Amino acid sequence: MAKWLDNAIFYEIYPQSFCDSNGDGIGDIQGIISKLDYIQELGCNAIWLNPCFVSPFGDAGYDVADYYTVAPRYGTNEDIKRLFAELHKRDMHILLDLVPGHTSVQHEWFKESMKAERNEFTDRYVWTDGIWEEPQGMSSIKGFCDREACCAVNFFSIQPALNYGFYKPEKPWQMSMDDEAPKATLEAMMDVMRFWLKMGCDGFRVDMAHSLVKNDEDGKGNIILWNKVRDFLDKEFPEAAMVSEWGEPDKSLQAGFHMDFLLHFGPSHYNDLFRCDEPFFSKRGKGSAKEFVKKYNENYAKSGGKGLICIPSGNHDMYRLAKWFDTDELKMCFAFLLSMSGAPFIYYGDEIGMRYVEGLTSVEGGFERTGSRSPMQWDGSVNAGFSAARADRLYIKMDPDEDRPTVEKQTKDDNSLLSEIKRIIAVRKKHKALQSKGKLEFVYAEDYPLAYIRSCEGEKILVVINPSDKECSFELDARAEESIYRLGKGVTVGSGKVTALPQSAEFIKIG
Ligand code: NOJ
Ligand code: CA
Question: What are phi and psi of 433, to 5 degrees?
Fold first, then answer.
């Protein structure tokens, strides 16, 4: 595993909405380059960039029409090469977004595949063998081309599913993973990876990584497939880093991914903490981290240190964290996110508590996700410093609130969320025990507070987090040596007991 993952803290950039350098209303690569110093000052040392390739943008770029070319609205391949160089100069790294499960209907492969006559790409996608034969358990499209068949789609109807085969083929049109066409699809995708890795990117975030091999309920086929990719990477690009959108680390890390995200869907109970009626991090103190911890422990044990379980503050598919929490509560969320094992991921704007913008019309297949994708709020200038374009030309409308948070305001304010996050990251960077691979042991997760011990090479750090507005305690035999971070009034350790004051968190070195 690449060494830099040991202390990686990721920042997710949705390129459309981060920084517009040429005033056309949409973010671009030059804009990202101009903000690298900001990301570095925040303390993040790695970026996950959402898809930036040629696309009709029916799903914000998750419908790729050309895997090899940067979408002109963001710049050119030369620009992204410059971005790689600028990052590496700062000892930072970048993962591009690989969308291997489907393409756009406008991709050249699909145009060929739609034809009635057989050609090289006939079997590149998952087609049935009759116009009335629908693939069971999958959505599909039909009747839009001369080919007498239905084509399975992976997500929206504009995203036909690439053919990696079926784990257990049951129908004549279902190929096995070892058939020539599915093997060629995988080869083609590895070529895409090779192209960008050679150009200087550091790895990939992989879209819907669990979904490539079909009829694969327990992930067995996809585990085989991704291990082939891992073998290829280990041979040709041993420093490459791969994070999966899978949400089941017990499977994805076995599949050879270096990291997997916990997500707002799937079995992880991630939502119990942040996104439900009574989230654990609310000061009402009615939530529970118990199921989350139970599942986390299972995954942690099963993955056996093989890879990292990563917890994101949010992403472009979820409601913004600030929809549930005020600033004090957000600070608690980050005290947790930034002291857990695995590499944390911060979604752009979450570091200043950007809000979910209500009532927006969908943009590029965003639907309810659109409100989490609004332009980054930099300062008090026009369009919050995101773009010099006329307000009605912006890709997505700004948060209209005059009091919206900005980087400028929060940089000046020592009490802001942004300042707090910088402090927490600085502490994490000083202590190996708090970083990606420091050992994690939960010591209390019954109700409030949540407590765990992070340890590495003889250093032991007790993390106690009490988001609730009530004092709470639990029994623990530990000797406090030194407090290395405190939020709120803090935590006391002694006489076999740990007591956390209301809305407090503390990281304490213990003997
Ligand atoms: C997951 C991506 O994060 C999401 O934005 C996209 O719409 C789907 N996969 C389909 O690619
Ligand atoms: Ca632009």
Answer: -60, -30
